[in-house]
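step: validate -> pass
step: tokenize input -> pass
step: predict -> running
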Amino acid sequence: MGFLDPASTEDDLRTGTNVEIPLWLAESLYSRRPPLVSVDLPKIYKEAYREILNADACTVDLHKLGQHFYDLGCYVAKHDIKGEVGNTLVNTFKQRFRMILSASTSTDSISSLQPLSNSERIRTANAATTEKALSLWLKRGDCPLSTANMVASHRKRKRAEMEMV
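step: predict -> pass
step: emit ->
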């Protein structure tokens, strides 16, 4: 496995050597019996970054930190016994939701998209498209909403009457 480390001149890696490898390769090497490697959390999900994200996730540029922050995080969270990564993902999204919502309704969305991850950008673009379509439909006014006859003629019953039946 010496070829995995560009600085290595030997055919084999020494025990304890840290090498960054793709997730699919790490999973494959770890699933063998006995495991050939030990796997650490990616740095963006370690405790130091989790503390930063839990403190104020809106100030973090997720695009620079990890373009696929939520996608990779969901995968990592499946293997996280303590559930800390999953909690961080939920808290991060909750904190960033208002920023995502305002970016989707803003006309100047290019500058506000900079700190968003790829999945946030996709959701923001979809929300902006939906917002524009709704706005056009409301402005068009050729299909006003009205109450259906069935709803208008439906007599509400009191709860007491329903319990007697």
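step: describe -> The chain has a mean pLDDT of 79.
step: cleanup -> pass
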